[in-house]
């Protein structure tokens, strides 16, 4: 199986973490998004959205990071990261959908404003944009922090796909200046994720 990725992408980091946790060797191909390589015809044939991650398994190509996580775990027959109990899978799915529709969306505003815009010479962070997202960020962070009170992991007693997915967007929490002060449970839980060898093994090279 081949994963098309960019080392700085939090979405592409998720399947690389999961592969590491599964002990699965994935062939990888770097897609230079900043050089427009996401938009070349050969890549658009694999993913018409031109985004990473994209997984290719034989003649099957799959995009959307959370779908890729489920595919990798199910294909490996893994029942630790992705237990096969129906309710547990539904619980994991709930966090994956929330991550995709809500959590990563607000986190990416901080990444765009505080990291990408200055890095790409697209101007200063827009205070109005950041103010607009802040209320949503706190609404989501409160739910996440509250859920993690008295728990080590999001679902059940061990790490699952849910933790990998929700934690990935936090890789830019410090340089992206996410307003995470006071969310002690998130900090403790994210510290556990950061302590995983799979987290270190998938870190982007230092700039
Ligand atoms: N919802 C998608 C998001 C993927 C995504 O936005 N990837 C970014 C990199 S962080 C990308 O490839 N952007 C290129 C583009 O939008 O042209 C997923 O979870 O896979």
TrEMBL record:
Keywords: Transferase. Residues 1-80 form the GST N-terminal domain. This is Glutathione S-transferase. It comes from the Bacteria. Homodimer. Residues 85-207 form the GST C-terminal domain. InterPro entries: Glutathione-S-Trfase_C-like (IPR010987), Glutathione-S-Trfase_C_sf (IPR036282), Glutathione_S-Trfase (IPR040079), Glutathione_S-Trfase_N (IPR004045), GST_C (IPR004046), Thioredoxin-like_sf (IPR036249). Belongs to the GST superfamily. GO terms for molecular function: glutathione transferase activity. GO terms for biological process: glutathione metabolic process. Transmembrane segments: none annotated.
């Amino acid at each position: 199986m081949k994963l098309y990725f960019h080392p700085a992408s939090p979405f592409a980091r998720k399947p690389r973490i999961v592969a590491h946790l599964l002990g699965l060797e994935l062939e990888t191909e770097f897609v230079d998004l900043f050089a427009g390589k996401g938009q070349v015809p050969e890549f658009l044939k694999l993913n018409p959205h031109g985004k990473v991650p994209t997984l290719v398994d034989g003649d099957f190509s799959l995009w959307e990071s959370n779908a890729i996580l489920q595919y990798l775990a199910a294909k490996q027959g893994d029942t630790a990261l992705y237990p096969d109990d129906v309710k547990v899978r539904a619980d994991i799915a709930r966090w994956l959908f929330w991550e995709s529709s809500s959590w990563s969306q607000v986190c990416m505003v901080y990444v765009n404003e505080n990291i990408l815009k200055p890095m790409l010479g697209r101007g200063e962070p827009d205070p109005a944009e950041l103010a607009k997202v802040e209320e949503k960020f706190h609404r989501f962070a409160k739910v996440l922090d509250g859920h993690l009170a008295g728990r080590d992991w999001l679902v059940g007693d061990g790490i699952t796909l849910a933790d990998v997915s929700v934690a990935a967007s936090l890789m830019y929490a410090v340089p992206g200046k996410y307003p995470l002060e006071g969310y002690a449970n998130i900090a403790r839980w994210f510290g556990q994720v950061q302590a995983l060898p799979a987290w270190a093994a998938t870190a982007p090279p230092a700039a």
